[in-house]
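Bug report

Summary: structure tokens for GPN-loop GTPase 3 differ between web form and batch submission.
Environment: batch mode, default settings.
Steps: 1) Submit the sequence below via batch. 2) Compare with the web form result.

Sequence submitted:
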Amino acid sequence: MRLFGQLVVGPAGAGKSSYCAEIVQHCQTIGRSVFVVNLDPAAEHFDYPVALDVRDLINLTDVIEGGAYGPNGGLVFCMEYLLENISWLHDQISNQFVEDDYILFDCPGQIELYTHLNIMRRIVDEFQQMDMRMCGVYLLDSQFIEDMPKFFAGVLSAMSVMVQLEIPHVNVLTKVDKLGRAAKSAEFERFLDFNASDLMGDTRTYNPKLQHLNRALATVIDEHSLVQFVPLNVRDKSSIARVMFIIDNSIQYGEDLDIDPRFVRKEVDAACDV
Ligand SMILES: Nc1nc2c(ncn2[C@@H]2O[C@H](COP(=O)(O)OP(=O)(O)OP(=O)(O)O)[C@@H](O)[C@H]2O)c(=O)[nH]1
């Protein structure tokens, strides 16, 4: 059964659930159907209709009440439990969805699930075996651009998700409305389609070894055009529509797109009502 899916990932508070809710609204408006699956055992409330909920299998509150785990270990335990019972997820998806359905997977914010643990990768493998065409959508809060080392850390986490999941991948810089006038500046554009070597000049590292490491990483990012960001303001309908368009293309062509910076500029102008 052919299905389409967005794996919505990113650090805690990046805007994943808001993104899912707004995509649902957008699709309702244009008469397109899209479903959201909650894969976060710690989720507490939803602003979208939940088609399928991992908490029906396991939830973090029960695990913590068991006394063996705290919040972070408990979350990893829940996700490992999901993997051990992956046939449950497989059956639920097979029973609830039909050919060509489009599903958003709202994922937990614990970044280690995508970077050094292979839990999400194995879930993605399972989805692909079900003939699901997928795109990883990595959300990063635009507050990360306030500070260059912080932004660089965000870029590296985006890259490790991309490398770990090995599916078409789109990076989204969320909450650009919160940047106010700064989002209109040429300075902001440097972050969207950025030259890492250039930006590295703005970071101050006193340890020469680290400077060398940073430069080497920046060269790799630039040589392979590894990271671009699409700006998003979930409160702006056209911003949502354009991000959806980019992701749909990625899913359709099965690869990362090289997004035209002029397109991104238009996106920023429309998304930021300043
Ligand atoms: N101004 C503004 N706020 C946003 C935007 N997107 C999300 N937010 C706010 O950011 C906060 C966190 O958003 P969530 O959607 O809960 O983030 P999340 O990534 O799902 O969070 P976790 O599930 O805890 O990992 C909420 O208060 C949202 O209202 C945006 O585009 N603009």
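Above is the batch result. After comparison, the two runs are identical; trailing whitespace caused the diff. The chain has two domains: 3-192+228-271, 194-226. The beta strands are 3-9, 35-38, 50-53, 102-106, 132-141, 169-174, 229-231.
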